[in-house]
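Recap for those who missed Tuesday's class. We walked through two folding examples back to back. For each one, the amino acid string is listed first and its predicted structure tokens come directly after. Nothing is annotated here on purpose, so try labeling regions yourself before you check the end of the notes.
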Amino acid sequence: MVKVSDSLAVQLSEKLQQANKTKVQIEAPSKVYPELTIKEAYSIQLYNIAERVQKDNGIVGKKIGLTSKAMQDSLGVDEPDYGILLEDMVIPSDNPVIKSDQVIQPRVEGEMAFILKKRFRRPECHGGRRARRDRVYPRLH
């Protein structure tokens, strides 16, 4: 299997950044480069997050998406995805409006948002989850 090179990963990152900036959809990198692995795709995501954080766009949380089988089937994937939430992704509760020029391809998925009292550490992830939850909210994503 061919591995995606570092230079191609940076090139794909830049294309995704440009699409986010201009709100013009590009073809999915996984369609153009079917050899792209999940690990490489998440590396590209982290590169983009690091670029955005450098521009004073702070991290406010993490997310798991595509948790329902129906949404996974609609997008042709077989597992949830995860990502990092940044300040500019937060929609203020006092004015919950999303303008069409802020998104590329709007979709809505109902999810549960868990606000944690304390950060999970990998070795202790399986025990005491309920005790770490502070609040649970219904959420549209």
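Example two. Treat it independently of the first, because the proteins are unrelated.
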Amino acid sequence: MMVKGGDLNGASTAGNLDYKNFRKFTYFKYLITESDVEELHLALVETNVCSEPLVKHLSYMQDHLEYVDNALIYRYSNGPLEGTNNRIKVHKRNGYGYTRFNNFRLRILLTKTIKTKHPIIIR
């Protein structure tokens, strides 16, 4: 199998460098998907053998290591909530002509199919 400039056995320096960066990248990707925090800490120490763009991203991870650890350990995300807020803002921009707040609320609930504690009451 050929990589840019050489084979995988290290016959060319450019090909070998690309292969090392690819291996390092896939290793970090594996550590993040497996949430292996201790191994990630050990791998971040050896970032000086990577290419410049990869070192830049890994040094950013080192600077914010506490937050990366929390994201890997707890797996909580505010992504779904941000998506709901964005959808509500889009409805607010597009449907500024609602005469009643209840109609606006119903439109949001119908499009997002949000389950509420209380039944939807139309007055």
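Answers for example two:
The longest helix spans residues 13-34.
The chain has two domains: 19-73, 78-113.
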